[in-house]
């Protein structure tokens, strides 16, 4: 690959903090909420995770791009992040099965990024001050002009995003002769989640985000799955209403990440914005039902209110984060529905939590 000198780029944070680096990906300007992911691998899976829609990702691992990209590593049809911040960005790769470099991949996807910045310093800054909006530019190098653009970026608080990235039309995944049928509400679902369902003898019908319970129920599913996704769960009254009706029907239900927050809201448990969120592959969680620990893959900026869970007559906590004691799992006291805040499909990440898909199958069998 011929070497091309890389342009200067700027990263401006909402509090006025400025970082200078080198441009990567497409030349341009992009804003979003800046958040960091501590995972040491799996960057392509991260960038194509729909839950990151509207966010600028800062990778804490030192080298990004060194193993290139591969279509089979995608978690959705295209890159979903707004932009990338990293330390060393490699324009060459060493994995022999890779199809193209991350630079080429980003250029096709029109992704703007910045490299050669002190990511440790940036992480310490937003870890202390909290997740905040930021803007990256490799075309606007005037800070005042960049600040004006940054002021136009909406806050993640109160932002509804799932309907912007959900499937437009329902579609089927899995064998039509499977033992179970599960209706999936697509709020930003990952490919590996569907794979974990279909390999357990489940046929899935994936529905757009704003599909009502009544519409999904015409397919006569044995259970429901509510997916992960981006944005503020409290800004999704349509999904909360759907969740309430599923719960009232006492049909088996499993929710992940955003689906977890919506199950909480459907049971009058409030949600809140975390200081800087949980994003990475090494978050310790305790299953308080079995007493066992799990190393989990996480990606979320909102949590559910612990005091509301304690007071609830409808749900109880099942999992707790061992770092900050936040609630990572709940279940209906009638045993028909449960959810977790983290990602048991773990792509990328450890597979400690994939038993949760088996737990869902057990509920389907006892329907």
Mind sketching the topology for me?
Blueprint: E1 8-13, E2 18-25, E3 29-37, H1 43-47, E4 55-59, E5 63-64, E6 83-85, E7 88-89, H2 102-109, E8 112-115, H3 119-129, E9 132-137, H4 143-150, H5 162-165, E10 171-173, E11 180-185, H6 191-198, E12 202-207, H7 213-217, E13 223-226, H8 237-249, E14 253-256, H9 258-266, E15 271-287, E16 293-304, H10 306-311, E17 315-321, E18 327-332, E19 337-340, H11 355-365
Parallel strand pairs: 3-4, 4-6, 5-7, 6-8, 11-12, 11-13, 13-14, 14-19
Antiparallel strand pairs: 1-2, 1-9, 2-8, 3-9, 10-12, 15-16, 15-17, 17-18, 18-19
Enzyme class: ligase
Organism: Rhodocytophaga rosea
Pathway: Amino-acid biosynthesis; L-arginine biosynthesis; carbamoyl phosphate from bicarbonate: step 1/1; Pyrimidine metabolism; UMP biosynthesis via de novo pathway; (S)-dihydroorotate from bicarbonate: step 1/3
């Amino acid at each position: 690959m011929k070497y091309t000198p890389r342009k200067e780029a700027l990263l401006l944070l909402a509090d006025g903090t400025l970082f200078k680096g080198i441009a990567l990906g497409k030349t341009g300007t992009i804003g979003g909420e800046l958040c960091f992911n501590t995972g040491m691998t799996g960057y392509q899976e991260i960038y194509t995770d729909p839950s990151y829609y509207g966010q600028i990702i800062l990778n804490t691992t030192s080298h990004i791009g060194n193993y290139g990209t591969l279509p089979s590593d995608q978690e959705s049809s295209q890159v979903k992040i707004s932009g990338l911040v990293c330390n060393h960005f490699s324009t060459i790769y060493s994995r022999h099965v890779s199809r193209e470099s991350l630079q080429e991949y980003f250029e096709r996807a029109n992704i703007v990024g910045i490299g050669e910045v002190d990511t440790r310093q940036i992480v310490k800054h937003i870890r202390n001050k909290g997740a905040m909006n930021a803007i990256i530019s490799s075309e606007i190098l005037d800070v005042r002009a960049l600040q004006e653009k940054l002021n136009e970026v909406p806050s993640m608080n109160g932002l509804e995003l799932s309907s912007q990235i959900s499937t437009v039309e329902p579609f089927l995944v899995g064998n039509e002769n499977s033992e179970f049928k599960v209706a999936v509400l697509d709020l930003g679902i990952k490919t590996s989640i569907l794979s974990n369902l279909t390999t357990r003898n489940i046929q899935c019908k994936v529905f757009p985000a704003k599909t009502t319970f009544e519409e999904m129920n015409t397919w006569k599913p044995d259970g429901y799955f509510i997916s992960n996704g981006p944005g503020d769960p409290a800004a999704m009254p349509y999904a909360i209403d759907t969740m309430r009706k599923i719960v009232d029907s006492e049909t088996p239900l499993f929710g992940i990440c955003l689906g977890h927050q919506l199950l909480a809201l459907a049971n009058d448990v409030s949600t809140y914005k975390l200081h800087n969120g949980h994003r990475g592959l090494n978050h310790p969680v305790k299953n308080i039902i079995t007493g066992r620990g799990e190393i989990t893959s996480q990606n979320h900026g909102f949590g559910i209110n612990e005091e509301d869970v304690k007071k609830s007559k409808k749900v109880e906590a099942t999992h707790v984060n061992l770092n900050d004691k936040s609630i990572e799992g709940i279940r209906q006291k009638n045993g028909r529905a449960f959810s977790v805040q983290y990602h048991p499909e773990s792509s990328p990440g450890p597979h400690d939590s994939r038993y949760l898909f088996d737990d869902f199958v057990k509920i389907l069998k006892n329907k």
